[in-house]
Design brief:
Blueprint: E1 7-10, E2 18-21, E3 33-37, E4 40-41, E5 44-45, E6 49-53
Antiparallel strand pairs: 1-2, 3-6, 4-5
Length: 54
Amino acid sequence: MTVPVPYAGAAPGEIGEDQVNAGPLPASLAGSGNVNLVLTADGQAAATVNLSFQ
């Protein structure tokens, strides 16, 4: 699924770090357990992050 990304850019106060804000997340993720998040920007995938939803 795709979620909105209202901000992607420099992390405030952190030199050389970027920040991505995503959401709102769909309510359907509630109770889904472990989910892999794959961020893709300009056709390049970042490292996969595992999230856990209760």
